[in-house]
Design goal:
Sig_transdc_resp-reg_C-effctor, 337 residues, alpha+beta, transcription, DNA binding, DNA-binding, 39% helix, elongated, Beta-Lactamase, transcription regulation, 10 strands
Length: 337
Amino acid sequence: MAGMPPWQGIPLSSEAVEVVSQVAGIVTSSASVEERMEEVLDQLRRVFPFDAGIVTSSTTTPSGSRTPILSRGYDDDFVEYLLSPEWQAELIEPFGMPRTGWPLRERDLPVDPMTVRGIAEYGRAQGLYEGMVSALHTPDGRHTGFLMLSGSSEESPSDEACAVVGRLSLALANMVDPMQSARVLATTLEADATSLAVRPDGTVVPLHVPGGTDSPVLDLPVTEIVARVLPRGRWTASFLWPRDGGGWYSCQAFRCRDGVAVLAVRDAGRLHDLTPRELEVLTSLTTGDSNSDIADQLSVTTRTVRAHVEHVMAKLRVGSRSAAVSRALAEGLILPR
């Protein structure tokens, strides 16, 4: 059938079916990406006894090199080359692999393998003769990395081995995508919230922007905000952020499993008519500060603080400081410090 992926119609042996099943369970486990990929490679060795393997993410360093997730068996020089933009331009891009996801063996290359620098200068020098490369891409076409397996035998990976990797490529693409957790999280947030992801390198990626490219939220110092409200060891925060021209944004920040943070921003509305000073006092209450502590922080008298606390309680319609704190935490009525 036209458009059918290579090897799609190849029947799998019982062991190959078991490998596919095992990997499908591994990629959805709660372990780290590195730990999951270790298990995946152990399973793939059952259908292709490779001697070296590498998996990368699409995340790049300032030099343009890819980020390694796991590497086994390749020497340092070869790994450095496989992570370089040159490798991407030499083998991954010319043969359309980012668009197919199905693996390519040396024998399947439309050119002499010895004209490919990575094979001729690095693979052969390390005694590696055959293998496969699969560019990993998600169903929506995002290229998230690649998987490469190499063997010391001149025997090519079997059609069945290629079929196994081909069937698993979408699942592996989602697993190595550093944005996957952030994208899933964004789907659980309120529809009117603008959600932005912050990668470990500080790059900001819009996930959901109801206001379009003209949204003022896109002008916020997102990386600085996340660093401020999610210090090391903290995984979530609810807080307010001032809007240009007055008013507030209601914000939530989350740190995802793969080192990516998500900032969700909505218009805050009237906030029970609390003034900026009352919000400062309420924020101090949430950290357990006494009236004396708050007075010192704000350079006012304790009598003034007591008045502010009374006003806060009245506006929140609660009868105690602890109830005011509970409501502030529940509604994110807190200013970042």
